[in-house]
Description:
Mean pLDDT: 93
Distance between the termini: 49 Å
CATH topology: H-NOX domain
Strand content: 15-25%
Radius of gyration: 16 Å
Low-confidence stretches: none
Number of strands: 4
Largest sheet: 4 strands, antiparallel
Helix content: 40-55%
Number of domains: 1
Strand order of the largest sheet: 1-2-4-3
Structural class: alpha+beta
Amino acid sequence: xxxxxxFKEFEKGIASLSPEQRSAFFSECGKNCVDGGTLSxxxxxxEDAEGDMDVFxxxxxxxxxxxxxxxxxxxxxxxxxxxxxxxLCKKGNVTTPLLCECSxxxxxxSLQSLWKGRDFQVKLCHSILQxxxxxxxxxxVEFVR
Length: 145
């Protein structure tokens, strides 16, 4: 079996999962992905912003290929990625937009790692794998525990 055939079956497998199952599955994938380096970049932004979420999302604009936007101070933000950074997609192995759940989970994990005790809701607005020019996530701060 060719590796490309394996990935086709992988795509079929994740398509057969419920949204809840995909979230659980890609939660581990997302953690592994950002723990490999992206989280340290976010941590540096967090430190530069002195934990201020509004400043953090403004500083995100300094990162190459990233746009941060404050929609409602302290509550609602957008994080936009101007290119897909997923290695599976960049190598052409996986093309299903269902894989974007991994990115959503990685953003959620990163935020919860930086702002412990806060709950976030992260919604994928659209993605490059869906045919859009960028990947945009809407982030809402739920409450402080």
